Amino acid sequence: MRDVYINGLGAFLPGPPVPSNSMEDFIGCINGQPSRNRAFVLRQNKIKTRHYAFGNERGKPYSVSEMAALAIQNAAGQSEISLQDITFLATSTTVGDLILPGTASHTHAALGLPPIEIANFQSVCASALMAIKSAYLQIKAGEHECAAACGSDFPSRYFRPGFYEGTSVMKEDGTLPMDVDFLRFTLSDGAGAFILENKPNERQISFKINWIELRSFADRFDTCMMAGGIKKDGETLFWGDFDSPGEAAQAGAIMLTQDFALLKRMIPVWVSHYLQLIDSKKIVIDQIDHLCSHYSSHSLREETIKLLKKADAMIDEDKWFSNLYTKGNTGTASIFIMLEELIRVKDLKKGENILCHVPESGRCLNGFMLLEVV
Amino acid sequence: MDYTKSEEVLRALLQVWADFSSKLDALPLIDKLNRGKFRVEDYKTLLLNHRQQVVEGGRWIARAASSIDDRYFELRSKFMKHCVTEHRDFRMLEQNYVSLGGALEDIQSGDKNIGTEALNAFMFHRASQPNPFDLLGAMFIIEGLGQNKAGEWGRAIRDQLNLQDEQVSFLLYHADHDDGHMEEFEEALKSGILDIPGMGESIVKTAKIVARLYLLQIDEIGNF
Questions:
Q1: How many CB pairs under 8 A join A and B?
Q2: Which pLDDT tens digit goes with each residue over A59-113?
Q3: How far is CA B146 from CA A75, B17, B172, B221, in A?
Q4: How large is the ipTM?
Q5: Nearest CA of chain A to the CA of B15: how many Å?
């Protein structure tokens, strides 16, 4: 089996950075009223600026597949390959532009490449690692020499007032409940991409992929973050089972929701997965030089650190790198965008190890990736 | 796996805990609570069943203390102190039951469900072995419940059933008063007992068994 390298990293963040006090200029105010949950949510996640695919300079929103293609072009531009060398494309997204066909097809089209092999991954944040692993295995197995993997998300589409107003989810006073409003001030838009090859760069550093490991814990958790359904009396009603899309939307079965209490119960399971990897020596704490963890909110970081310290499994906080605070939580795009910044701003040395962590609350997934600077 | 350091044991125990806590949430009764569908009857049944285990807590800790020889007398006094703090707890639970209109004699004369029988038999069996420090694994699970779950459950039950704090005092008390227990636990792990061959493994195994039996106890609520 061949070694696989990340040789180009790219990001696309639409429009200018949006400060916290202007968020509602982009996502709108529900029933014309500024959200009362905004300050609380921002205190929890500590995000200062983010980007939105709406309201940009060109006057029409970027689509998920357009942003993916722009990030891939950016990544290819940073690498030693030409875009045309890509013969395999893996995309990840939380919600694509269309229900079907998949985002990979549209991204391929937007790139303007000749016929290539594609794979389409759709979940929440951790689908980024599914796409990277797919590209990694394709190259490792000798099926392709050069691949692109990307993550692209446009959640703010669904945060606009029209997606909530008039639905049965609204509270009597015309405001949104916390579990719905929370996501509006947590998630934002963007895309990121990697170019992978079977040999390292000649003129600049590369990341050798040592391993990628993903685990689903859906055997023990109900759905936590969801779009396209609504929980009622312990059962999930699917939007397609309503008599019409209009009725589904009215019942709140289209919007994105998050079950807070359930999310908190996932933390020990994610930490336990990490501890297993330490016990099996896949992760050796002293050998990790940088940790890129895609925690969705600063408060979750603090909760996790408490547990890690207890188990003597903590990676020093000065090795943690995150741009959540300036680039926002961009879902599947986050880990790409984080690594793209890491390689630009940090003076990375050959031989250093980078541990990447992507948990997903959707229905409890957890993934790790170990990279080595070469 | 041969665990000789307290950190290794703690790491393994946290993994047992993660598995246990997520399986706990999948049990029908807890799932019902998480879904916000708890009834007063569910709470009463929970108290009635749980009391029959809690009432034995002080006894098995005392039995374990009596099985510790003089080489470890410092730890013996810790077990004894721990026993004193726990052995009246079931009274609080009984008061909670009575506050809901239950009869004191019903909860006091209640039988153990088949899961509680298994858990209890195992605890006394282990506590009767010489120097049964593997029971620290059991304490990790039971204390973990007090620290991580009791408060959440107590508040959820109070809010769903519109009860007063005094009516869920057993659950809330454990969430508020068990803070120091984890530090004591870590001290016990570091006291030299891990030098006993196989002790680290044994602690983890006992934690796994107790976690399994605890799930059984809740799963078998009402099955006497």
A1: 59
A2: 899 999 999 999 999 999 999 999 999 999 999 999 999 999 999 999 999 999 9
A3: 50, 13, 9, 19
A4: 0.75
A5: 5
